[in-house]
């Protein structure tokens, strides 16, 4: 008899939930492609599309693992479910960085300069991503479980720290009237457009923070711990949190406020 899912998950995963999650994230990706094309938005908007597809792949792998599990499949599933949300943080960094760039305020503070906002937080995201991917791979290998766990913990803790710093920067830019956002369809003013975009950034970052705290607590609790073995917690604090982020990105689609350069020139 082959390996059983319970040997890896420490519980018997429910059927139906991962299949539904995979389908939902594919639908999300399709909606975001449609919105991005229709708005003729900047190409970096496709970060959201790629993240939704990666989430769907993670749940497809989870579906396969329920009935045909192996070490390789389990590691792949872990990485596809652990790492893609880092790209959502990157998306938020890019949005705030673009607001700073378009506004051309000429801020004296280094932490308000467009390149710093985009590249500093991007570098922190990549560093956190590398630590989490390394730790996630090690956790499934005999003798390296504990080392991998603490590498993941450090990666997640770093992500939480930089997310907190980003919230401070985003709040400063959000409150400063010198920073403007281009109006989208049915937006009465630049102030209204900016308020809508900044609320989207703050709400999605808060959800990402909740998800990251859950993942950090899960790692500290350890493989086979109460939190790790609670499948409901995974679907509430990981799946639901990320899905809510995507719903906010769709409902308050910011692509209208960041059109492609070619499209912007056509409008002038």
H/E order of the elements? Answer: HHHHHHHHHH
Average pLDDT reading = 88
Examine the secondary-structure arrangement and name the CATH architecture.
Up-down Bundle
Q: Over the alpha carbons, how many angstroms does the gyration radius reach? A: 20 Å
CATH class, named Mainly Alpha
- The gross shape turns out to be globular
Gap from first CA to last CA = 68 Å
Helix content: over 70%
Low-confidence segments: 262-268
Structural class: mainly alpha
Major sheet description: none
Total DSSP helices: 10
| Structure summary, number of beta strands | 0
How are the secondary structure elements laid out?
Elements: H1 5-9, H2 17-39, H3 46-67, H4 71-82, H5 85-103, H6 114-139, H7 145-175, H8 190-221, H9 231-251, H10 261-267
Structure explained in plain terms:
The protein is mainly alpha-helical and 268 residues long. It has one domain (12-267): Rhopdopsin 7-helix transmembrane proteins, CATH 1.20.1070. It is built from ten helices and no strands. It has helices at residues 5-9, 17-39, 46-67, 71-82, 85-103, 114-139, 145-175, 190-221, 231-251, 261-267. The longest helix has 32 residues, at 190-221. The model is unreliable at 262-268 (pLDDT under 50).
Short structural summary:
The protein is an all-alpha fold. It contains ten helices and no strands.
Question: Characteristics of this structure?
Answer:
single chain; 268 residues; mainly alpha; Rhopdopsin 7-helix transmembrane proteins; globular; RTA1 like protein; transmembrane
